[in-house]
Amino acid sequence: MVREISAGGVLIRKREGSWWMAVIEPAGEPAAAVQTEEVKTVGAETTVKAGKKAKPVLALPKGLVDAGEKPLEAALREVYEETGTTAEVINKLADTKYVYTRAWGDGQRVFKIVSFYLMRYRSGRIDDIAPEMRIEVARAFWIKLEEAPKLLAYRGEKQMAQLALKYLEEHPEI
Questions:
Q1: Separation of alpha carbons 155 and 27, rounded Å
Q2: Cβ(158)–Cβ(118) under 8 Å?
Q3: Fewest CB atoms within 10 Å of the CB: 23, 53, 140, 173?
Q4: What gap in Å lies between CA 136 and CA 55, rounded to an integer?
């Protein structure tokens, strides 16, 4: 079984008294088959309302750790590449571990570990990413952190959003 090591970030920003989190919609990912909430974007802010539309696949920015790179460095790089923003690390949240089968190329099974870090927005404009990144990211935008566990597509990433909420509750000085 092949092993992959990746890193990513739960990038947060406080606006109008609420915590917001950056998410990406991966390029080429079909909408989930279930009928659920509609995600509506106005400017750089996204809200959710009840509806009959398919739920888009939303994920956290993450990617492979390059040779010679530390997971934290990879997480900061991936957040920048996939969202267009720079960040500062607050704390490591946790690692997720799972097995998947590659849908491309060799179809091999892969054991993957992803290290996630809680990060605070520093600068940049969400979704202002390089054109070559559009093969990976259809768009990046902000959602309310409290809504993230129900909007994110993947179980491990939902858990990271919950850990971020818990961390912020325990550290109100942030």
A1: 20
A2: no
A3: 173
A4: 19
Residue 44 CB contacts under 8 Å (≥ 6 apart), including other chains: 125, 126, 127, 141, 142
Q: Which amino acid, one-letter code, is at 84?
A: G
Residue pair 26/57 in contact (Cβ under 8 Å)? The answer is yes
Residue whose entry in the numeric block shows the structure tokens 């939902």: 158
Rounded Cα gap, residues 114 and 112, in angstroms: 7
Q: How many CB atoms sit inside 10 A of residue 143's CB?
A: 21
CATH for 2-170 (3.90.79.10, 3.40.50.10330, 3.30.9.10, 3.10.590.10): 3.90.79.10
Give the torsion through C-alpha atoms of 66, 61, 94, 87, to 10 deg.
Answer: 90
Q: What is the spatial distance between Cα 143 and Cα 165, in angstroms, rounded to a whole number?
A: 13
Interval 32-80: pLDDT, tens = 433 334 444 445 455 445 455 567 899 999 999 999 999 999 999 999 9
- The full set of domain ranges for the chain reads 2-170
